[in-house]
Design goal:
- There is one protein chain.
- By secondary structure, the protein is an alpha/beta fold.
- The protein contains 10 helices and 17 strands.
- The strands form 5 sheets. The chain has a 6-stranded mixed β-sheet, with helices on both faces. It has a 4-stranded mixed β-sheet with strand order 8-4-10-11.
- α3 crosses α4, α7 runs parallel beside α9 and α8 runs antiparallel to α9.
């Protein structure tokens, strides 16, 4: 096996803003990205895959809203499990096909997987993660009075439901991931940050929360002692002054410089901030490098030839 890299595909990259969000559209995007993943495997790189699921969970929540008077709503832990299975089977079908075309006989296994969070994590009582459809302020007030959920303003588009986003502590299916890899499988795990689980009185149970998939990917990469972490999204990399006249795309950056930029508030909490945080955490924990870049250039980003690469020390030293 070559160097091990955990590759995280963004849910927004699979179902980009402005698209239809349809199954055929997401399938096309996954088939295109899995072709690049197959090229990396053909080069001898050892990969574990994970993915986001924000738009996909949002779609389920819209269905919950529309059908709430007909069938019971699906809780968030079930939403995560559902999207893990859906994205996982499409990615598996695509990657298996591309590997066979290259004469590579390796199984691809999507694993419905759980991640433990602390039962006393302060985030569980302070919902901050927006999910599901947008509402007007009046609609949000009405829903808050009837369903008891927390809603908050999310820019010009309106208000959204806010849910807890606790910090991932342990990949509960790590032994299964290792077992599958020992038998030559390429594993897809911890999708959507993993199914959020807490332990109460010696028993694990799912909770109404979502785990940040980039932090969960960084945790998995650390647990597997991976050499690299690659976060694939819908922009070409990390930029200082993003969206301004002074925008500057970063190519290779040391950990201290990236953390200083984050401390200055360069990266928005709802978009690039968690990705930079996850990448920095992985490198600080001993990872060789972390890369962030476009899903359209997945192969180049994972190789460190495109996007932004974060390393522990000065890359020019």
């Amino acid at each position: 096996m070559g160097e091990l890299v955990v590759v995280a595909l963004g849910g927004n990259a699979i179902s980009p803003a402005g698209g239809t969000g349809s199954a055929p559209e997401q399938t096309r995007n996954l088939w295109a990205s899995m072709e690049q993943v197959a090229d990396l495997v053909a080069e001898g790189m050892d990969l574990v895959l994970t993915h986001g699921n924000g738009p996909q969970v949002g779609a389920i929540l819209i269905k919950n809203e529309m059908a709430r008077d007909v069938v019971p709503a699906v809780p968030l832990d079930w939403c995560v499990a559902n999207t893990q299975a859906t994205i996982g089977f499409v990615a598996t079908t695509a990657l298996s096909h591309h590997l066979r075309e290259r004469g590579i006989a390796r199984p691809v296994v999507p694993l419905v997987s759980r991640v433990r969070v602390d039962v006393d994590d302060p985030a569980l009582t302070a919902p901050t993660k927006p999910v599901g459809p947008w509402f007007s302020e009046d609609e949000a007030d009405t829903r808050r009075a009837t369903d008891g959920h927390v809603y908050g303003p999310q820019g010009e588009r309106g208000w959204r439901r806010l849910v807890p986003s606790p910090h991932p502590r342990e990949s509960l299916d790590l032994d299964a991931i290792r077992l599958l890899r020992d038998h030559g499988a390429i594993v897809i795990a911890n999708g959507g940050g993993g199914i959020p689980m807490v332990e109460r009185d010696g028993r694990l149970e799912g909770i109404e929360a979502v785990i940040d998939k980039d932090l969960a990917a960084a945790l998995l990469a650390h647990e597997l002692e991976a050499d690299g972490l690659s976060i694939l999204t819908d922009v070409e990399g990390v930029a200082i002054g993003f969206g301004t006249a002074d925008q500057d795309w970063l190519r290779e950056v040391d950990l201290a410089t990236m953390r200083a930029a984050a401390d200055r508030g360069e990266f928005r909490a709802g978009s690039m901030g968690p990705k930079v945080d996850a990448a920095c955490r992985f490198v600080a924990a001993g990872g060789t490098r972390a890369t962030i870049g476009s899903l359209d250039r997945a192969g180049e980003v994972v190789r460190g030839r495109a996007g932004t690469t974060i390393v522990a020390g000065d890359p020019d030293a």
